[in-house]
Amino acid sequence: MAAVDKKTFKREPQTTEDAGSRGQQQKRQRVERQKAQPTGELKIDARKLWEVLRRGDLDAEVRKVKMKEMMDMLRGHIKEVTFKHDMSRVVQTCLKYGNDEQRSEIAAELNGSYVDLSRSQYGRYILMRILKYCPKFRDEVIKSFYGHVRKLVRHKEAAHVLEECFAVYANSKQKWNLVAEFYGREFAVFKSIDGPKSLDAVLATTPQKRETAMDSLKSTVTPLLEKGTVQYSIVHRALLDYIRFADPSERQQVIETMRELVVEILHTRDGAHAAMLCLLYGSVKDRKAMLKAFKPYLQRICCEEYGYAVLVEALDCIDDTVFVNKAVLQDVCGMMSELLADQYGRRIPLFVLGGRNPHYVGSDALQVLADNDKVKALTSKKDASVRRKELTAFVSDSMTEWAAANTTKAIFDPLPSQAVNEILLRAHGDKSAAWQRVLDLVRMDVAQLGADHVLISPIANRVVTNCILAEHSVPKSADSTLPALPESNPKFGSEVLDALVDSEQLVPAACAGAFPVRALLESPVTGERAK
Questions:
Q1: Given this model, what pLDDT does residue 190 score?
Q2: Residue ranges of the alpha helices (H) in 145-267?
Q3: Burial class for 523, CB neighbours closer than 10 Å (0-12, 13-18, 19+)
Q4: How many angstroms separate the CA atoms of 400 and 395, rounded?
Q5: What is the reported pTM?
Q6: Residue 280: φ, ψ to 5°
Q7: What is the DSSP track for 248-261?
Q8: Is 146 left (phi over 0), alpha (psi -120 to 50) or beta?
Q9: Can you spell out the DSSP letters for 196-216?
């Protein structure tokens, strides 16, 4: 056979008819292959019906009819078809739009395959739907994971389902039964109903189990840290227990391994607590590495429900305030307006000024801070009042600028008014601009404004009253480390009285029952003049 010259040989152009017939032929062959499978006809018919059922604009009555058709078609075959990506979507739609009886029927037919479903790339979504739409089967799903937790938490797909169970649906006892498998084979096998619900309780009654539990925890936690898969809350619980109970040398090894990963565990209560302990127990090098890791995500951390507490701990325990200023406070000052307007973000600057005030710092965070004081006494050398004074100096300029620009409105708002109060009392430097805004509000006509006057408003009058009291007495505080008020503070009570007298508003304010007027009358500085 003569050789074909590749340079001169040309393939004949393919016509549209040939291309179309070839595509149709391939489609027919694909359908024939599907039909040859044991459930091929079922899959084809189910997908056709699914195209109608999944429509969001489908009439409710029509949907009921189509759901009945679908259930009649799938009944007895759900477990066979559910691990394929196309049929997984069909079953998910049935769980979404079916009634309680139909959902329970699907969940019951899949019972016994929950662990396999969690490991499936497509089946895990069905298990998520069962957890969401079938509350009667949540206990069965969670119990099916008992004995498999250590393997599932390392599995790419199953870890998401395990996290959903642990973080959203499990009660306290179920959470313990899940996480306890990290502490040893004994806990994986024996599940007691009325037993302990925490490692603290176990070690309190059987302290001899500590070494076994720590060895098992280490063997579980170390691979997760090396892979960087620490975003799950069940892992956060294990990390917290390990850091609390491990020997100092082993604890230090874990902290060194996870100092770059700490930023990934701040979104849960246990994770934030573990991060706070890492800051306390960590070396100077560890602490600096952690704060540098926080820097790109600082605003997000400040405004997280649990993340802010880690920054509070950093401000409370790190002695190198110059580095804390560079790593944290400079950025905090740059976004002061955004933070003071946020429920959690405001707690960072207010902690610097007001300390462990329960009005500013959440009760959970305060309890953790108090529990950590014993560790702090061993790892931090600088006097707490000196540290706070230095930190206050770093944020004062930014906070007084904010107060000068926003006091007129902020003093009437519940959360920002607390910032105005602390800035006027405790910030360093010149606060005359912000205080002058308050005096301008004091001079306004009481009769005309009524309850909107700064001396009558239930929110604003507290700020003015606190300032008047601060002229002659130290404000009450739950934090004994707060330094004395700056000597450069304005003469709050005297200046308020002068403003009321000059504007002839003292008597109208007194007649309106304004609390600041009462404070003026009771003050040893202004009492005689006010009378």
A1: 57
A2: 149-152, 158-164, 172-179, 185-189, 199-205, 210-227, 233-245, 248-258
A3: buried
A4: 9
A5: 0.85
A6: -70, -45
A7: HHHHHHHHHHHTTT
A8: beta
A9: -SSHHHHHHH-GGGHHHHHHH
